[in-house]
Amino acid sequence: MAVAPGRQSGGPGLGAAVPGSLAGRGLTDAEAASRSGAGEANDAVTGSTRSYATILRTNVLSFYNMILFVIGIALLSMGRSSDAFVTVGIGVVNAVVSGVQEIRAKRQLDRLRVLDRALVLVVRDGREVEVPPEAVVRGDVLHVRPGDQIVVDGPLAQCDRMEVDESLLTGEPDPVPKHVGDDLRSGSISVAGTGFQVARDVGATSYAGRLTVQARRESTDRTPLQRQIEFLVRLVMAVTVLMSGTILAQVLIDGLTLLRIVQITAVLSGLVPYGLFLLVAVACTTGAVTISRRGALVQQVNAVESLCSVDVVCTDKTGTLTTGQLIFAGVEAVGGVEQADAEAALGALVHSATTTNLTTAALAAALPGATWIVRDEVAFTSARRWSGVATDDAVWVLGAPDRLAPRLAATIPEAMVTGPARRGLRVLLLARSTDPAAQLHDADGRAALPDLQPVAVVTLADELRADTAETITRFHEQGVALKVLSGDDPRTVAALVTRAGIESATPASGHDLDGLPDGELDELVAGTTVFGRLTPEQKERIVVSLRRQGHYVAMIGDGVNDASALKSAQVGIAMRSGSPVTRDVADIVLVDDSFAALIPAQREGRRIVNGIAVSLYVYLVRVATQGLVIVAVTMLGLGFPYSPTQLGLTLLTVGVPTLFLTFWARPVATDQRLLGSLARFVIPTSVVTAAFGTAIYAYLYRAFADGLSQGHTPAHVVSEFERYTGLTYTDSDFATASSTIGAQTGLTTFVCLTSFLSILFLAPPNRFFAAWTSPAGDRRPAALVAILLAALAAVMYVPALSDYFGLTGPTPRMVATVLPAVGLWYLTLSLTFHYRLMDRALGLDALRGSGPGSRTPDHLDTHGSRSG
């Protein structure tokens, strides 16, 4: 339900004198200033605690960044200032990327809030003045007019046929009549009549303020992918710490220099997948920007990824599924009246009425009609439930059939009323009196019905948003269930959702939930689609019940009464036209009020998750392979297999590929058993790669050592080793240092080549590489691998580049060793995947119940191919 726009300065009533009975009750400017200073002003209560400082603090001090900062400080303490700068820099960039997106969303919502803010009329010094809502103080007298939003709680001191729309508070769509002494609650909207309200509860003590305070809790949920990545990072950290302690103890026993110890520590710290943190932030932020162009403004960056895990969407009815407007459904003449005459009379009646409401506006938009000369009129109110006009020829009345029935001279078939009502339509009866003495008011001037003849049954329907039915169908196709949580009558809601395409069993009322223990509530919630007459607390309880049952829940709402449920859901979604409180607490705001914006948003979330998941495969293979090689080579006593500069090639082997694979990913259903799939790919790949890599390192180390010691090494190779090591051939350490560098070059070359080919296992361009998953049909990964191979060749054959990365040029012995090993590696890994040797070795076949030769069913590749 959209909030009425604010009145402009100088509008009707500004500066006007007020009724004498109220002039003395208004405050003076001095009294208002005194009460404001005493803390009795209507200070705005926002639903979000996320100030600019909070957004920056949350993103800078995230779990990922704290790891990076700690490692950066440790590297700095060891004198590795350049490595520390890179490590801390990644954390800072990570924080900036995520923080900028959330600040951008906050600023856009702040602009929306300013546009929505309406000024209010208060009585000051006996006259009406226009002030901002936050300038109202306790004891002020407010003049409330049609279209005004109520900004404080308090009783009506005077009113004239006033009606208030409380749908943003209760979910009830029908206006509520108000009388002197009745409370007006903040967040509701005046739709008819005028009145004067005395401000009693302001700011945080008002109804809307209290609900807002309850919703202000910080409750950002970690998404499933975040939890899985966190687990993997903690696991890598734990293994790295244990491995580092063992290796550093060994090198201390061997008496290595402090510089060598620092270099080894830098290599071990490089096992932490820094780039993965940045990749997640960039991917989610890019996704947030993408879906914002389609009408979904993301306030929490992780909400983009979180959307793809949603399997239940809870939604309010009024303002979310519907527009809050009525549409003309039909008219059926009764009592022998001609259909054309009935339609003409109805059109003339609504076009002649001087006061309009949702009903008459819908009918006037659908039906043409002449304008009658009206001599008397009774406006519609919720209490009366009828309206009428008197002309010189007749009295015409339009109202609820049960209210007109006692004055009807003839009955109408019951089915004409009950049939449309069961379909969720609103039924009205058009009637007339041609008695010359018929009047619309009695002798005392009160509205009264004359004797009437039925003319036609009129039906209207709540207007569904244009894209509601299609969006619901799309969600159903994707396995997402919908549940409607409304404050309206359950039967009306059930009929409406049937029109929208939601299959609904028996609806439940809020009364059915009262007193139910959690177990019985879970059973009711699981089997029910439509809930009506719900309080804000009951909506929240339903969301909590769904979460307790293992569902991943999104809640869509527009009213203050939806705020607590939005905060309880994993993903809170608000309509832009709804309450500012609801927008504040939501993770995503639909700025065009389009329910359909969730479909592309979910697709983008699935694309991001799928891309990050594939990047996890690449990152973890690199980490596990390096860790295993370090342990194996150290155990063999052959020195340390990596230098810090060689780790710079990680950008080529991991950073660039994962960036492209993430953005090329397709929006397929997420792998619900990602950790299992990772294990089935990462463990065999890293074990096979590390085994070959260790063998290559050991062979080349011994070969170079023997050749240098026996004088069999060519002179140009000796010269290159002398240039690189800074030692001469006659130095005692020359053979060891040169053998280490030569073996490191061979190992690094082999690991780089196998890293590139691993991409083709994850996204096979053809059946030759389809041992892990089915061919993707996308040639871009293969082209990327070709480019990466060319880049590696440049590193190896351009002296400046090879020196920068701590490598020697490729020697014939190294080439003759590495290239055949890559072929054997491919054959071994293909057979391992094809025959699921790891599953057999660990006894996982029996657990999975799958037959020989079937593919891994858990893995989803970058391009949407499901293996198996």
Describe this structure as you would to a colleague.
It is a single chain. It is elongated, with a radius of gyration of 36 Å. β11 and β12 form a beta hairpin. The strands form three sheets. An eight-stranded mixed β-sheet has the order 8-21-20-19-9-16-18-17, with helices on both faces. Strands 1, 2, 3, 4, 5, 6 and 7 form a seven-stranded antiparallel β-sheet that branches. It contains 33 helices and 21 strands. The relative contact order is 0.08. Helices cover 51% and strands 13% of the residues. Among the domains are: 294-321 and 467-598, HAD superfamily/HAD-like (Rossmann fold); 326-459, Calcium-transporting ATPase, cytoplasmic domain N, CATH 3.40.1110; 603-848, Calcium-transporting ATPase, transmembrane domain, CATH 1.20.1110. The protein is an alpha/beta fold and 868 residues long. The model is unreliable at 1-13 and 846-868 (pLDDT under 50).
Radius of gyration over alpha carbons? 36 Å
* Biggest pleated-sheet summary: 8 strands, mixed
Q: Give me the CATH superfamily of the domain at 603-848.
A: Calcium-transporting ATPase, transmembrane domain
Q: CATH topology of the domain at 603-848, which one?
A: Calcium-transporting ATPase, transmembrane domain
In terms of structural class, how would the helical and strand content be classed? Answer: alpha/beta
For the termini, the CA-CA separation is 48 Å
CATH architecture of the domain at 603-848: Up-down Bundle
- Main-sheet strand order equals 8-21-20-19-9-16-18-17
Beta fraction: 5-15%
Oligomeric state, counting identical vs distinct chains: single chain
- Name the poorly predicted regions: 1-13, 846-868
- What's the level 1 CATH class of the domain at 603-848? Mainly Alpha
